[in-house]
């Protein structure tokens, strides 16, 4: 059966790519890539393939390129930034290809929120603070179900991660506070995580909008609202506690 590869190539640093993704890009006959978010050194890995920038194409045009070439048994790669499953619009293409008898293989990648956490040198869950991460977006043209309103999600006091939303930062702030977060809650914005021009801006729900306006960041950023950012009050993990026994180690307290 003919096949299309949906490949994640990571957040920007060309070394944050999987070996599988690299090999597929090197061997591909055709690559449709997601515009400006794919770093040029990764596109340069493509030695003989024809490259199409998806930024200027609509769904039907992308589908046609994938379908037509897969049908000819070419090695076809749909290259996504980060991980294809995160706001990547792959399901519609996989389903349409399947209807025409073409199978798909998905290769995961390092998504932007994980590169952002790395840039912040932090942990997204901390004992005593939160054990939950909520990944979401603020509402704009793409509607978000009412039950997932930011004010509802904020009630959990989990780590809130926003894609595609830095231009809607004031909505994030208003709704996070409406949901019960204090104005002093830490917020971090990571612009172009892992790229050479990466920028980190830290603040609180009270002052982050002004800071981001001053930095003129309007896109390609992850917003994290959470008390895990620069926390001084977390608890140490149980896993490495000398009093704690588990399947691989006995307690070191006599
Ligand atoms: C259409 S989504 C694609 C996300 C991608 N599939 C992923 O897993 O990272 C694009 C959004 O991802 C986020 N993004 C992508 N790359 C980023 C990076 N290097 N640093 C910060 N945010 C990034 C931004 O919020 C941007 O608006």
Task: Please give a structural write-up.
The chain is an alpha/beta fold. The chain has 2 domains: 108 residues, Cobalt-precorrin-4 Transmethylase, domain 1; 113 residues, Methyltransferase, Cobalt-precorrin-4 Transmethylase, Domain 2, CATH 3.30.950. Helices cover 26% and strands 20% of the residues. The protein has 8 helices and 10 strands. Strands 3-2-4-1-5 form a 5-stranded parallel beta sheet, with helices on both faces. It has a 5-stranded mixed beta sheet with strand order 6-7-10-8-9, sandwiched between helices. The radius of gyration is 21 Å and the shape is globular. The relative contact order is 0.14. The mean pLDDT is 95.
Order of H and E elements: EHEHEHEHEHEHEHEEHE
Sheet with most strands: strand arrangement: 3-2-4-1-5
Q: Helical residue percent? A: 25-40%
In the residues, how many domains can be counted?
Answer: 2
Given helix and strand content, the structural type is alpha/beta
Determine the strand fraction and express it as a percent band. 15-25%
Q: Which molecules are bound besides the chains?
A: S-adenosylmethionine
CATH topology of the largest domain: Methyltransferase, Cobalt-precorrin-4 Transmethylase, Domain 2
Q: For the residues shown, what is the average pLDDT?
A: 95
Radius of gyration over C-alpha positions, nearest whole angstrom: 21 Å
Question: What is the β-strand count?
Answer: 10
Q: How many helices in DSSP terms?
A: 8
Overall 3D form: globular
Chain oligomer state: single chain
Q: Low-confidence spans: pLDDT under 50, at least 5 residues? A: none
**Please, what is the CATH homologous superfamily of the largest domain?**
Tetrapyrrole methylase, C-terminal domain
CATH architecture of the largest domain: 2-Layer Sandwich
| CATH classification, class level of the largest domain | Alpha Beta
Described by strand count, sense and barrel closure, the largest sheet is: 5 strands, parallel
């Amino acid at each position: 059966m003919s096949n299309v590869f949906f490949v994640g190539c990571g957040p920007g640093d060309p070394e944050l790519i999987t070996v599988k993704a690299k090999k597929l890009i090197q061997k591909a006959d055709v690559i449709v890539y997601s515009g400006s978010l794919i770093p040029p050194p990764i596109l340069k890995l493509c030695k003989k393939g024809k490259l199409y920038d998806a930024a200027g194409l609509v769904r039907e045009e992308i589908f046609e390129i994938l379908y037509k070439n897969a049908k000819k048994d070419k090695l076809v790669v749909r290259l996504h930034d980060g991980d294809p499953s995160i706001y990547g619009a792959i399901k519609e293409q996989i389903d349409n290809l399947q209807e025409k008898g073409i199978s798909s293989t998905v290769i995961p990648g390092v998504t932007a929120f994980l590169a952002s956490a790395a840039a912040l040198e932090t942990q997204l869950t901390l004992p005593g603070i939160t054990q939950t991460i909520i990944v979401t977006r603020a509402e704009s043209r793409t509607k978000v179900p009412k039950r997932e309103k930011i004010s509802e999600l904020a009630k959990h006091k989990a780590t809130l991660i926003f894609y595609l939303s830095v231009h809607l930062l004031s909505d994030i702030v208003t709704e996070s506070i409406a949901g019960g977060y204090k104005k002093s809650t830490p917020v971090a914005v990571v612009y172009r995580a892992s790229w050479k021009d990466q920028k980190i801006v830290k603040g609180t729900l009270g002052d982050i909008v002004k800071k981001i306006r001053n930095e003129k960041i309007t896109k390609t950023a992850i917003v994290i609202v959470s008390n895990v950012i620069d926390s001084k009050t977390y608890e140490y993990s149980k896993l490495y506690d000398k009093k704690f026994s588990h399947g691989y180690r006995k307690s070191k307290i006599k």
